[in-house]
Amino acid sequence: MLVGVIAGSLVGWVQQWLLGPEWALATVDKLPGALPPLSMPDLRLDTLTLLLVPSLIMTMLALAEAMSIATAVGLRNNRRINGSQEILAQGTANVAGSFFSAYPASGSFNRSGVNVEAGARTPFAAITAGVLLIVLLAFVGPMFRFMPMAAVAGILFMVAWTLIDIAFFKRALANADWADATGWAVTFVLTLTVSLEVAVLAGFAAYAVASRVLGTNSAH
């Protein structure tokens, strides 16, 4: 995978050198070299009121993404996912991160996929990734501006492709009821055409409406 990144980056720069600046590829932004500062959560009432609805939406999206990632990885390794433990871990991570100027934390499909492909089996892989990220930010963060986005996209595509289980997908869809199928279809289409956030929320809404309508119709 590292060889692929280096090769893709070299191809992109050679292309720009041979064909001119108009063929230049978009590159990754320069990463900041400093660690985020310590902070104190703002617990004022007006702040909590302002963030209540956005935080609920972000929580739904984060949990949906994390559970889907965990389920996909767990199925690949024949492991059962404990939903309560996952939710507790997400909440603990966000509470701790609020003291370090962190963004809302969630599972990362890209990082999890790369770890699976690399053979990671324990949480120590995440600890190692965190330590290496600190090292990268401190020493080689500015060099990322030379990496073409296309090379990064190639990595993410390959990681995503290896986690797709066509056989399981067919079995799940064959056993799904109309409400499940409706929610899946709306989420799938909007993920490809709009954005993940809109897709997840619309998928929830479509499932809820379909369940209510089908439940009402079946009752009659």
H/I helix tally: 9
Structural class, from secondary structure content?
mainly alpha
- From the alpha-carbon coordinates, what is the Rg to the nearest angstrom? 21 Å
Strand percent estimate? under 5%
Mean pLDDT: 78
- Tell me about the largest β-sheet: none
Verbal overview:
The protein has 220 residues and is an all-alpha fold. Helices cover 70% and strands 0% of the residues. The chain contains nine helices and no strands. It has helices spanning 2-19, 45-76, 83-97, 109-118, 124-139, 149-162, 166-175, 178-193, 196-219. Helix 2 (45-76) packs across helix 3 (83-97) and helix 8 packs antiparallel against helix 9. The longest helix is centred in the first third of the chain and has 32 residues, at 45-76. The protein is globular. The relative contact order is 0.13. Residues 216-220 have low confidence and may be disordered.
Characteristics of this structure?
70% helix, 220 residues, 9 helices, mainly alpha, disordered C terminus
Summarize the structure.
Helix content is 70%, strand content 0%.
Walk me through the topology:
Elements: H1 2-19, H2 45-76, H3 83-97, H4 109-118, H5 124-139, H6 149-162, H7 166-175, H8 178-193, H9 196-219
Helix pairs in contact: 1-6, 2-3, 2-4, 4-6, 8-9
